[in-house]
Structure formats: C-alpha cells, structure tokens
C-alpha cells in the first residue's frame, strides 16, 4: 500500500535538503513510487549553506507531488525563499491537516493541480487556460474521476427550466448578465456556459457597452458544475476542444476592466473561478467560496488556475483546491478574492 500524506512526518529543512539535491528526488516524492507529499517544517530552520538552499528550492519545481511549507508568520531569511517556492504554505497543523487529507483522497489530481499552478505562474492568460484544460482532460480519463463517477446515481428527474439559463438585459451602456437556474442553484451547465458566452460576446462586439454586471438569481450565485453532466462528453479530447472553443473565462478576462461581479450565497467551482476574472467583485455577507474539484479527481476547470492565482496567489489557490475548505466573505476580502463585502 502506498504511503499516506497524512501519515508523513514533517521534515526539517536540514533533513530535506540532501534528498532534494539527490538524483532520485522525483522517485522519493511521487504518488507512484514514494511519498505523495513533501511537508517541510520551517519553524526551527537552522542556518544552512545558501547555495545548497537555492538548489533545493529550485528542485521543488520538479517534484511530481505537492510540497507544503509548515511555517510561522515570521521566518528566518534563509528559509523564506524556500517557503515561497513550496506549493502551499500553512502556519499551523490545523491548516495542514485538510491539505494532506485532500492529497490522500486524490493523489494524482493533487499532483496535476500543483504542476498546473507551477507551470502557469508567469504565463499569459490564454496559455494558462489551455494548460488547465489539458490537465482537466487528462484527469477526466484517469482512475480517480472514474472512481467518483462509479459512486454517482443516475441523474434525478427535475422540473423543466422556466426560461433560459442566462438572462441578459441592457440599460444604456450597461449590460446585466444573470445566471438564471435558481431551481438548481445556478449549477453551471453546458446551456449556461453557452448562454454566458453569447452574452459576453455581445459585450465584446459592441463598443457602446461600457459595463458588464454579472450576477445570479436565487439563493446562490453558482453552486458549481452541474454534476449530472460531468463525464457526458464522448471523450476528453473533444471536451478539451469544447472548452477552448467556447470559453467564458477567455471572454471575461478580455472584458475584465468593464466587468463587475456581484456574488452571494454559495460560490462553488465555476462560481468562484469565473467572477475572479472581473476587475471588481462585490460579495454579499452571506457569500462563501469553495473549490471541490479535487474530491472528484479533477482540478478547477472553469479558469480558476488562471484567475485565482492572479487575485490570491498560487499558494492560497492550492490550499483552497487541495483542502476543499470553504472560506467566508470576510476571509475572501482579506485575501483579495473579492473587493468589497456588502
């Protein structure tokens, strides 16, 4: 049986440096051949040779598993660069525990997530979106997503929708775009994606539209992807082509300076990822934010590996996705995920 991340002993900086410099580092820390996560306790970091530390920090980018820095708020200078290069940084073991549990639940998806975030750092938006879609498509063909699908019951019969999944209204130079599937808490379906793309294309083509307001009808802004549709496309390659052909994320990024997102209630998956592209995000006090994709054996697939790091950084994005924990509106404001709470 493969080791579990939650059972791994955090290593001190002095303990981990020789291993990271060794030629077999990618074998030692891998979900296939070794430990599914590297956890380094930097709380009592002692002085080490700066050249050795730099080489070890650079080696973190090659590991086929997440690296986690367990570090207090204040670090010795020699440990700060190392902590910044880890995939996740946590201050306490309470913050560490859900990260390790998430890695244990889906080690392949966890590895793909952090590799995607590393590779996307510094890349342009289009390159980041293509990379995310390729990673997502790969995981759709993997065993962790297959295991999740095997647990799913047949889709439930639901009442037919009362109207289009996305509703648009124009007032002067402003276009309001409303997610309108309240009976499904605005679950992000193919119909909703297509409606959102159509509305955003209108804004992109019409120079007289100077403001786009994105909001949601009902108790939740968006409860994430419509689970009844997950895995229904014929193959991952076609799914990738669809995502990169019809991308609401690309359009939101292009229009970002004119977009204000108004979010409330549950903001899950796409309900976090898409608003994060907007120049301004206003949240109601009841808003909460959650990235659950790892529990399905997937990574965020609506642009979140691109939009969220630009707002909250790579490490906090990884913590949200790996831990599967929700954050509330005040935390989102403090992190910079939203600009205002009303």
Secondary-structure blueprint of this entry?
Layout: E1 11-12, H1 13-21, H2 25-28, E2 38-41, H3 50-59, E3 67-70, H4 77-85, E4 88-90, H5 93-105, H6 107-120, H7 125-140, H8 143-150, E5 166-171, E6 174-179, H9 190-205, E7 211-216, H10 236-245, H11 248-255, E8 259-263, E9 266-268, H12 270-273, E10 280-283, E11 288-290, H13 304-312, H14 314-323, E12 327-328, H15 329-335, E13 340-341
Parallel strand pairs: 1-2, 2-3, 3-4, 6-7, 7-8, 8-10, 9-11, 10-13
Antiparallel strand pairs: 5-6, 11-12
Helix pairs in contact: 1-3, 3-4, 5-6, 5-14, 6-7, 6-14, 7-10, 9-11, 13-14
Can you describe what's shown?
The chain is α/β, with parallel strands linked by helices. The chain folds into two domains: 5-105, Rossmann fold (3-Layer(aba) Sandwich); 137-341, 2-enoyl-CoA Hydratase, Chain A, domain 1, CATH 3.90.226. The protein has 15 helices and 13 strands. It has helices at residues 13-21, 25-28, 50-59, 77-85, 93-105, 107-120, 125-140, 143-150, 190-205, 236-245, 248-255, 270-273, 304-312, 314-323, 329-335; strands at 11-12, 38-41, 67-70, 88-90, 166-171, 174-179, 211-216, 259-263, 266-268, 280-283, 288-290, 327-328, 340-341. The strands form three sheets. A six-stranded mixed sheet has the order 5-6-7-8-10-13, covered by helices on one side. The protein has a four-stranded parallel sheet with strand order 1-2-3-4, sandwiched between helices. Strands 9-11-12 form a three-stranded mixed sheet. Helix 1 (13-21) crosses helix 3 (50-59), helix 5 packs across helix 14 and helix 7 (125-140) runs antiparallel to helix 10 (236-245). The chain is globular and about 65 Å long.
